[in-house]
Design goal:
By secondary structure, the chain is an alpha/beta fold. The chain has six helices and five strands, in the order βαβααβααβαβ. Helices cover about 40% and strands about 20% of the residues. α1 runs parallel beside α3.
């Protein structure tokens, strides 16, 4: 089997969208691939509901256990008042591109970027 490097990019404030990204990310990880999940655009807003338990998302907990949540966008997380939730959940914040996620960081490491 060829080991792949895959970055899953969550961009929508939609629980089902994030769930499908996390299900796939966990599956890739559990099948031996290098995986990073990034929460960008509207998706960091979901961290508030995950932190206060109003959103039940077992795939998120599994991704945290697997250590595959790379980060949430610092600027977007702040914009949605989700910084405290990210910190509570242990989600790192990065903002290498004017406060936002720098996709070149992943491309230069030969990660395939998947977003849906």
């Amino acid at each position: 089997m060829i080991m792949m490097k895959v970055m899953f990019l969550a961009t929508e404030e939609n629980k089902m969208h994030l769930m499908h990204i996390l299900l796939n990310a966990n599956n890739y990880h559990e099948n031996g691939h290098e995986v990073a999940v990034v929460l960008e655009c509207g998706s960091p807003k979901l961290l508030v509901g995950i932190a206060d338990k109003s959103i039940k998302l077992p795939a998120f907990e599994k991704a945290m256990e697997n250590g595959i949540i790379d980060h949430a966008c610092r600027a977007c997380t702040a914009n949605f008042s989700a910084t405290e939730a990210a910190e509570k959940l242990g989600v790192p914040l990065k903002g290498g591109l004017n406060g936002h996620t720098d996709l070149l960081e992943f491309s230069s490491k030969r990660f395939e970027i998947i977003s849906f």
